[in-house]
């Protein structure tokens, strides 16, 4: 599963959206051990941020949640055959399931299947015959309990046929932050009444949603082969796991497609998708690689998905295990309930992540789409080929998929791109760790959906990066090959991964796996150094609260620089307070702790301005340059610092240029004119759209200065991100002659530009713009609505109260009923904007708070004053 709650695009936007959440205070509570110089997690430009989860009290105490063991296996489900058709008007699935099973070990005379919200028509024992034998069963709308005709031994296979109707919309409302709904089967625009969306039906199985559309043993430690026959309207395209083995036209004008998966996989990985897709075909080593998209996007599909064959080749070679399935397809669907899903041979994507117009494509960063493609593909090995035996071991799926994003970025785009991924992911985890610290492998939780968090993803990926660096490249991938080969087509747990690394390296790695996988938290380090008698004396203090977190064993590389020469020193930290003496020939220009940027830690490293300048000018890559710029920002008025920042505007890596621009924000030094000229030149001539947009944002940080010529030019830019930045700049200093230009953008569907327009009209709009908010709040993507709805409330402050009724009704309805938690939050904040002028809204807000079921959202409401 990719990117809990938001998709990659939503996460990329949230770095901008969160800036509007000024009324949510103290979203980063102080750590249990704090000091004035504690560094925050790095803040990277236009990068994914942690899921919007705020708790007023840090949850660092040992869990009191119930133990969650792997499911006991009584029966092995070895094969599932489904024959399904759809009633679009009623949003029902009519199905016939033929299941092949055998007792796992102990003899069995009863079978319990997961089957949620069905009408069960019949249950028959087939055992190879055409005419079945009716079996007795009981059904409580969740579990189908079947009495077999006799006692079966583990050597005896038996076959059942179940006829049923799945009615997903009659199921109780469920879901979580990661997967916002859990009804398993979804009809999108089933009657075709919404002209902005196609008609589609698709499924989402993780965690236990497959049993909402077919009877099964819905546990990750089951493995089954599969055949699904889909009867659909003649013009519709279908997709499911495995290969299309048959397609026949029926007398009634429908068509039945049969998809077959010959290798076994877990039931939660079963999928189907039906719709008016354009199928763009590709290949890898003779295997079909297909991209299913809306017809309007078929001509940009290869630009988005086109690196998939190269990824297949890269991952196959690195792992020494060729892609193990018969085909690979990727489908973009509307209203998907998460970012993406790694169904075996057929990954599903939220359409916002992978469908872009030609104009939008240049703005699509690696983090916005390609990373999710790599992530879901890597799951085909880690998650599908080898599957976690329980949700407690979810990082065995997700940490590897997360880490694949860094591996691919490094392979395709170089070390700086990989460092950018590393930085972003570490920041995501540290953000979440302000309010939540859990072991990666969690045998105690309340809800299995709780496992889908920044721990399982971002922390897990960083732990694998440390393991990779510790054992070395050859040993790392040799161990992964051993792990995959030994556990193929089966379920696994953390001990098997540890054993694969120990058998490969010959080293007992219990210390590493225990502190990083089995214990909560992370090291919080205070690092200082002095120079004495040809030695650097390095002091490292572990200042984390060790009552519930360990004192870590940390292999770390420290670099000492003399001129252009760096010397690496390998140290091993094992104590809470430890000193190391590093031999040097003279006082170094720079001492750099964690030189390779591998360590998962919150590091407060004391460095002088001279050291930071040296680091910026001699840094080996993006991460060190970024750290130096951040350390120097408060000194930007210094001539040496501002000159270094201006030089960094020519750095070959775009994110370094963005960091340098941010360092010049509100610059007040002696180079004022030169800095402003550099900023204007960058805003107009820089090749990268994100860098141009950042330059515009930095220009807008100078109060009472007129850069409207730059902004007006940017309104015609080819990049939506740049146009959006110009709109936001003009929102702070509007001019009469640009209002018509901005009005011409109102019909845009681009999320970044919609956010900017809502800010502009929120600050400067009049009653004439009221209708725009009413209309666009109907069709804007959820990640836009979070900001748009608050800005709607800001606009309504300036219009007559008698005109506000429709807007208030819209905000109240969305605050109460919208399926996305962060949209409900935006609507609530929009209503809150009106309380000062309309105190009668206070009971409404109180009622919304009292009826909200999401505890995290309730916590956020309590912080809005």
From TrEMBL:
Residues 307-516 form the Peptidase M1 membrane alanine aminopeptidase domain. It is an enzyme of class 3 (hydrolase). SUPFAM superfamilies: ARM repeat, Leukotriene A4 hydrolase N-terminal domain, Metalloproteases ('zincins'), catalytic domain. Its EC number is 3.4.11.2. It catalyses: Release of an N-terminal amino acid, Xaa-|-Yaa- from a peptide, amide or arylamide. Xaa is preferably Ala, but may be most amino acids including Pro (slow action). When a terminal hydrophobic residue is followed by a prolyl residue, the two may be released as an intact Xaa-Pro dipeptide. Residues 26-47 are annotated as: Disordered. InterPro entries: Aminopeptidase_N-like_N (IPR045357), Aminopeptidase_N-like_N_sf (IPR042097), ARM-like (IPR011989), ARM-type_fold (IPR016024), Peptidase_M1 (IPR001930), Peptidase_M1_aminopeptidases (IPR050344), Peptidase_M1_dom (IPR014782), Peptidase_M4/M1_CTD_sf (IPR027268). Keywords: Aminopeptidase, Hydrolase, Metal-binding, Metalloprotease, Protease, Signal, Zinc. GO terms for biological process: peptide catabolic process; proteolysis. It comes from the Bacteria. Residues 81-269 form the Aminopeptidase N-like N-terminal domain. GO terms for cellular component: cytoplasm; extracellular space; membrane. GO terms for molecular function: alanyl aminopeptidase activity; metalloaminopeptidase activity; peptide binding; zinc ion binding. Its cofactor is Zn(2+). Residues 1-19 form the signal peptide. Residues 26-35 have a biased composition (Polar residues). The keyword Metal-binding applies. Belongs to the peptidase M1 family. PANTHER family: PROTEASE M1 ZINC METALLOPROTEASE, PUROMYCIN-SENSITIVE AMINOPEPTIDASE-RELATED. This is Aminopeptidase N. It comes from Hymenobacter perfusus.
